[in-house]
Amino acid sequence: MKSHRILRIITNSEAEPGGAANHVFHLSSRLNTVFETMVVCGTGERLIQRLKRARVPVLSLPTLKRSLSPLLDAACTKELYRIIVGGKFDIVAAHSTKAGLVGRLAAAMAHTPLIVFTAHGFSFNEPSGRLRHYVALMEEKLGARLGDHIIAVSDYDRRSALQKGVCREDKITTIHNGIDAGGLAQTRGFNKEDIGLPPNSRVIGTIANFYPNKGLGFFVDAFEIVSRNLKDVHAVLIGDGPMLADICSQVESKGLKDRVHFYGYREDATQFVPAFDVFALSSVKEGFPWALLEAMALARPVAATEVGGIAEMVGEAAAIVPPGDPPSLASAIIGLLSDRRRATALGMAAKERVMQNFTLEKMVKKTGQLYLSLLDGRGK
Predict the structure, then answer these.
(1) Which of 82, 109, 273, 338 has the most CB atoms at less than 10 Å from its CB?
(2) Residues 204 and 226: beta-carbon distance below 8 Å
(3) Which of 3.30.70.1350, 3.20.20.70, 3.40.50.2000, 1.10.10.10 would CATH assign to domain 4-178+359-377?
């Protein structure tokens, strides 16, 4: 019997169906047997249709947008307040920075019994100027005062929040993202010819939203270095977003148009991963990236930047380099492509690490248990 009602809030758009959206989808669809769940998200049909297919009630709120806008944000808070009061929700769970702020404010105004925020990487950890960093930190501190508990998707983010004084130690819990590793292990996926590449080519691939945090310009710079040192290499980029045109222009200006291939947003993005000889992640800011977990579960050799929770995700099972350093990323990629035995061993170690530590079942179970424990502590 479903004894508690939960409202999940997330900004969402056609350009960003990334890890946070996956997180919300899986929690909403799998905890729906225990909690009566509803999702409110911004405009963006991809997440909405996935939720509808899973029979999770979902409401699109056009005023719920990623970018800051005082008028829209005020209107959004007012609408969320009405939804929360009308739905008599026991829990409001907000995801990512913007939804976290307006969602927690509306929930606090409605006197919701339990208000939880999941930080998919804190905005104050993004590369930025001092003023923007200060504003982002103040937003998180205000949000923490409005809510009851924070879920961090990595120990890195939990430590960062505590070091910055965002909240008390007992007000934040790490629950790592998890994936359906068993299901992914059965994936045959595409081979190189399936995606239009020569069968004997060596492919460096990535899956990412085209936002500044993903550092895709550094990916292209690194690939240019790789292509000067190795023959028959190709790069595959899967994703969409506001920086797509800029990255395409960068590729063209470097004369790499025949070597770098853009596939846009793909529902079947994971099917491409078996065709990659190396999965490369060039982010300058991350939480606990979903795409990297999937690549590891498919035993792909990984070269990734040391940001956010990536180091604790991969352990010793990947080549780790500093962010914003294309020569180091290129060197790591070349090393993996040049030493097939080492690359295979790292890929198998990565798969085992995901199977042991980062499954969807563990993530869902820990989240449900935390909700119930927090509600019990409030006598609900």
Answers:
(1) 273
(2) yes
(3) 3.40.50.2000
